[in-house]
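To: structure desk
From: M.T.
Subject: fold request, one chain
Message: Could you run this one when you get a chance? Sequence is below, nothing fancy, just the single chain.
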Amino acid sequence: MRILLVEDSEDLGDAISSKLRLSGHAVEWVRDGDAAAEMAAAEAFDAILLDINLPGRDGFSVLAGLRAARIASPVLVMTARSEIDDKIGILDLGADDYMVKPFDLRELEARLRALLRRPAGALSSAVAIGDLVIDHAAGLARLGAAPLDLSRREFRLLEILASRLGQVIPKQRLMDQLFSLDDEVSENALELYVSRLRRKLHGAPLSIVTVRGAGYAARTHDA
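Reply: Done. Structure tokens follow.
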């Protein structure tokens, strides 16, 4: 996932970003509400981790602004407030979930996996395209009974393309979702991942096609 982390605590922010990056996610970390609102409006994120007590605009204001602007990225609020009225207020403003500090980072990752499944409305974490099965929660794919040996970024690329079957996804958008803003990468890096994934999908009912001058699309063989 490409995640926006909004947390002004250096210790907690560093712990969360390090944990998520080790798990293969691209994390953009900002430390105040104004920067969070600006980045969320300019970039596409799979999920937003939002602290409530922030310098400048607080988390309530940021969350309300996101939903007013029709930014649909799932938002998980991190708060030190445990009162029931605060929790209700957070959800009523449009948060998808919340966690009360302190929390276990393993639970945070599990909540994020759940948020990733919600936008597609999936009743299961696994999606089947013919005999190709993509398990979002496990981060695994298999072709028939054989697991595919995919790196984290190869799996993420497959997720993005397969979730929009037949749609052309621009190269820049794919790069934004695969790599962190801190990564110095060119289109050659994306092309390398596409080439590797194509080889590993040999025999699958899904192919990655290049749409010259536009981007890439995943198409089933009967499309």
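Reply (cont.): The first strand starts at residue 2 and ends at 6. Let me know if you need anything else for the meeting.
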